Each structure stands twice: as structure tokens, then as C-alpha cells.
Amino acid sequence: MVSPNLSRFLIFxxxxxxxxxxxxxxxxxxxxxxxxxEQLIKPMFDTFTQETGIKVKYTTDNEGALLARxxxxxxxxxxxVLITADVGNLWAAAQKGLLKPVKSKVLESNIPSHLxxxxxxxxxxxxxxxTLVYNTKKVKPEELSTYENLADPKWNKRLCLRTSKxxxxxxxxxxxxxxxxxxxxxxxxxxxxxxxxxDPLSDDTRALEFVAAGRCDVTLVNTYYFGRLMxxxxxxxxxxxxxxxxxxxxxxxxxxxxxxxxxxxxxxxxKLLEFLSSAxxxxxxxxxxxxxxxxxxxxADPFVAAWGDFKQNPMNLVKAGELQTTAVKLMDRAGYR
Length: 337
What we know:
Helix 6 crosses helix 14 (324-333) and helix 7 packs across helix 14. By secondary structure, the chain is of the alpha/beta class. Strand 1, helix 2 and strand 2 form a beta-alpha-beta unit. The chain contains 14 helices and 10 strands. Strands 1, 2, 3, 4, 5, 6, 7, 8, 9 and 10 form a 10-stranded mixed β-sheet that branches.
């Protein structure tokens, strides 16, 4: 006959095995779903693992597929962290209940309030400025001023735009709605459409190529597209102009991340986000794609810094998500395809 004490000990053994064998292995691994491609994230993950001993397993795909996957997996998801570009996608993930608010003094200290969710469900990790680029042979910088001014008739047949189907311009218009109201923003977007030199183009690189070739004089792009093109051909007649410096500031967006709602290793997930907001990772995270560090204490890569300083719009980016559907409908009414 087995004594009661021995029975309790035998029952306790599997619990000890669970605590000391299974849990530490899990504590040393964090799983990431990333819409940023491998070459943009692997250097940071490798450095994080070297510094913390926590391994990073990651899956890359487009943002739509990753959000759908998180929804389908529900409580069974292996993902601890979601990384994606554009605040609209982060906002959508939070609205769908796929992210959880986290408390971290490190993240709150490293990331300005307008570049993170008011409830701390997502955090910006790099800044992508959407600005004006012009043909230096056809435009003098003093002719340029604001996003809104591109609706002026003086730009008739001189403007190129990327298609409205991409989230970048949707977020810009959403932030304009937050600033100007729907009626005034629609008037501005109609002005843009009236000034187009050609039908909206497939991507920012194509728009830049059209400007460089003289097929239009000015366009709106994310700065890293400008950087990529200028690294290939520094002699292109292209230059950046920072708009709205006397009022709202340059429209910025983010690449960012959040901890998933059903994260199995929440503490390791938070550690990863904190690391990605730190000085060492900020340089890696931003420089590899010619973006700007979200941490204001960290200087941009010299190649990027050479484009000059600018004032950014301080409005919380949550508005870009909240008003995205309104923006899409407005752009459609304005004939912006």
C-alpha cells in the first residue's frame, strides 16, 4: 500500500517536469508574424537573441494574410508578436481584438505618444515620412509649400500620384480629414485629381521615375523609395521638399508592432519590442530600409539625414486608422483611383 505522502510526491513529479522542462524552453523563444520581409528584420532578431538568449521564430507574409491567420487561429495561435507596416494595419489588428495593451515604461519612454496607440496596443518602431519629391530642372523649391497646395491650378498636368488603392495615400488623406474635415479634404483631393499629368501609377518608384523623366513635375512618396532610387542613380534630377513646415508638419507613418492577444510568451514579446525601440536596434531597424528611427534620441543614418530636418505632424496616428474607411470613400467620390 502506497503512503499518502508518497502518493502526493508521485503526483508532484509531473508538475515539476512541466515547470522546469517545458516552461523554460518556451520562455526562451518568441514567435513573430511579420509583414516586413526577412532581410529587414533578421539582423535585429539575431542581435536580440545574442543579447538575451531568447530565440526568435518568425513567419513573413503580407499584412492581410497575417491578420486573417491570427483571426483564424484565435487562442491557438503560436504568435506572440505582430510586426507590420502602416498604422492602418496596426489599428485594424487592434480593432479586431488581435492585440493586447501592454505596460512598459521603456516603450513609453522611447516612443513618442503620437507614434503609439493611446491604449498601448501597438507601437511605432520606425518612421516613414510621406513627402513631396520634385524635378529640379522644372520646379523651384520656393514654388512648393503644402500637400494642400498641390490642388492649386498652377500644378495642372504637373502632378503624379500613386494609386489610391495603396494604404499609404489612404492614411495621408485620413489624417487630412482629421485636420481639415471631410468637405475641405474632398475639395483638396479633387484638386489633386484635376492636376494629374497621367493616370495614378502602380507604386512610388514608378511615380519617381515619371518625375525624373519629366512626364510630371512633382509627386508624393515615402522617402525610402526616393533613397533607393537615388542610390542607384545619384544624378537623377530629383529632390525632396518637406511640406507644411509652417503649420501641421510632414505626414508620417510607421512600421510598428504589438503583442498578440493570445501571446503565450508575453514577457519575451515585450522584451523584444523594448529591444526594437532601443538605440542599438533602432539604428538597425530604420537604417536597413532608409527609414527614420522612432526613438527621438537616435540619429538617422547619414544618407537619410542628408535630406534635411523636418517638423512632423504631431497628431496621433490612430486617426489614420479610425478614418481610413472614410478616406477611401472620399477618394472614390473625388475620382481618385
